[in-house]
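chain below, 198 aa
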Amino acid sequence: MKIIIILNIIFLLLSNVNATEDKNKIAILVNDNVITNYDIEQRIKMFAILNQINITPENSNSITNSIVNELIDNLLKIEKINEYNISVKDTDIERLENQYFRKTGISKDKIFELMEFNDVDTDQFYQMLYNDIAWQTLISRLYYRITSVSDEEIEELLNQDPMISREAAEQIIMDKQLDLKSNKMLRDLRDEATIEYK
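prediction:
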């Protein structure tokens, strides 16, 4: 990704995320927690860099709305993670980080260089990984034992893709069911939350 593209992204962010001179101004209240203009700006910059997306006037509103929703969901997840005292090992974060960069084919050094150049706090990246692992750990702890996979579901998946093993098919189905539980829990948390846009 060229530096000039990142500079264009920053210019658009400053004009489209309502990032005022006071970046610590509260943008959203989620229960007793706050999301500031700075939080939104940082996450949008990180999103653009990680996904190598050029933010334009045409896509900036939809990306901003998506990021705002993500930040709200993240605060709600953190509340639940803290309620259940979920902790994450450094080795788990390192493993997910390696998987991420291997899967995307993006150079970690280049990404972090762009983050530093654009004043993006790399701690936000690691916090994102931490929260992802902690949330999945919570969902597994709450629902794994009560989630079942039927032989019919496994056979159907094996018929669709005979190359995968029975164990892999079972895990894929289990993961999908846990994702559904995760989405429902998040919807319930949103319904119960007090969300105020400033």
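Strands lie at 26-30, 33-36, 195-197. The two ends are 34 Å apart (CA to CA).
thats it, cya
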